[in-house]
Amino acid sequence: MSETITAPGDAPARVPGKPGGRRRPPRGRKVLPYLLLLPALIAELAIHVIPMLVGAWMSLLHLTQFFIRNWTAAPYGGLTNYRVAMDLNGPVGKDLLHSFFVTVAVTVLVVSGAWLFGLAGSVLLDRPFRGRGALRTLFLVPYALPVFTAVITWRFMFQRDNGMVNTVLSDELHIQHGHPFWLLGGNSFAALVIINIWRLWPFAFLTLTAGLQSIPGDLHEAAAIDGAGFLRRLRSVTLPLLRPVNRVLLLVLFLWTFNDFNTAYILFDLPPTSADVISIHIYNASFITWNFGLGSAMSVLLLAFLLVVTLGYLGTGRLRRRYA
Amino acid sequence: MHDSTALRWVRGVVLTLLTIFTVLPLYVMVVSSVKPLQDVQGAFTWVPSHVTFQPFVDMWHTVPLGRYFMNSLIVSVSATVCSVLIAIITGYAVSRYKFRGRGTFMTVVLSTQMFPGILFLLPLFLIFVNIDRYTGIVLYGSRLGLTITYLTFALPFSIWLIAGYFDTIPRELDEAARVDGAGPIRTLIRVLLPVAAPGIVAVAIYAFMTAWGEVLFASVLTDESTRTLAVGLRGYANQSNVYWNQVMAASLVISLPVVIGFLGLQRFLVHGLTAGAVKT
């Protein structure tokens, strides 16, 4: 055998002297990977990329209810929709800005709460003890539950007269007086934050548990022998080693919370102003007035904000490096 | 290495609080589903005045829950099957071939995950309505339209996870199969799939959970006859007189299969997550 072994993916080298030796790999092997990508590519183009481009185009149109079935006939409006959305003196712009700030506040509280709970749970369950497996499983249940059944249960718990929260807080623990509304007015903000933390902290717990398992146990042993207490080990050993996990985890939590539509949609008939998060604000602005042009402009602004934050957070090209 | 008393104490308190926080809604769901109607209309009680399974019978009649159930099941199963198949083929290409544009492809696919759903919703709604108008293919208000939409939601994570799994399988196995005369497709089916089976199961559960729990697109892209559970259940709670015991019974029935499936196979999911993460 005079054939040499070449790098995988290359065609086997030809025996020298053979006439018309093919130097290039056979055609099929170059086309095949692209053929394999085709279904995923078509699906992503059809549902994500093309609608996104259409959305960007729609944001430039005066696309009101008269043109839904015939949107190509909608008059071109240039940047009018953006001007309306960002005009802080007009009612639309003012409401959008308010909704943005509500979303930022919800996101900050939920991400830090979920992360802290997840860290506490995973660190405290890192050492084996009786019942650890059961607790780990239990903590994952909120994450496994379909969003809408979880939130509807919370909706029942936050009912004013027959809900559990008021019964416990007012009648059993006497922490508050009377039966306040939780799903109307200022309290609805707190309700939204609590429910979101409940739904998301198990994901932080799951991710951090997986991250902790990759930290070798002897590092802790060594630190303990050197006299480092629990908090010292947490600060000097655990947290630095969890850094790569935390980096991705915090970003995912941020994006999920910021874009979350489900919780507010199921929790309220119509969200009170104190819990008017951005996704549902755009949804209602679009479908109540049927002004899709304006709704699209708001969506594009939202995407622009998320892109800036994400790229700023990641630095550039981290995903690319992974698969290049 | 011994834990100090203080640490054991802190651990006890914190874990107890986390457990209570986690369990409360689950307890409310279960206990309310076996309460008679007057119990859930009056002040909350920790135990039912008497246990009844009537809510589990009545819930099918108050709203067309059976139809919602079938719609959800059909859409979620079809979306899961399609997205798993596509993810396998794509994961194979990404893991086993070096080709131009591979990095760009993965970047684009993964970054669609971060886009707010609301951004696609309006254009997709318009596109569906207009496809119906010009070609007669009914996507708006149909299970087909929802299935196509859902299969793309699970795709990015599924491709990433399956490609990660395939990467852990040594290429020598492929080579051996090739020497035996197997083509790429046979190699995929005979060599890679059996080894990656846990990853594929994990992806299937993930895809099913995604479709089963989706609310935003279901609220717009379905009509009364194709309504899924996610939207239908909200209809219960919006009525003027809410039968909370039936709502909780329905929630329990809807949640149970997903929760059991997830918990039973969480090992695979966690393993899949770490298999993917090791590469970063």
Task: Report what the structure shows.
The complex is a heterodimer of chains A (324) and B (280). Chain A is built from 13 helices and no strands. By secondary structure, chain A is an all-alpha fold. Chain A has a domain at 94-276: MetI-like (MetI-like fold, Orthogonal Bundle), CATH 1.10.3720.10. In chain A, helix 4 (132-144) crosses helix 7. Helix content of chain B is 78%, strand content 0%. Chain B is mainly alpha-helical and 280 residues long. The radius of gyration of chain B is 23 Å and the shape is globular. At the A-B interface, helix 1, helix 3, helix 4, helix 5 and helix 6 of A face helix 1, helix 4, helix 5, helix 6 and helix 7 of B.
Characteristic terms for this protein:
heterodimer; A: 324 residues; mainly alpha; MetI-like fold; 0% strand; disordered N terminus; B: 280 residues; globular
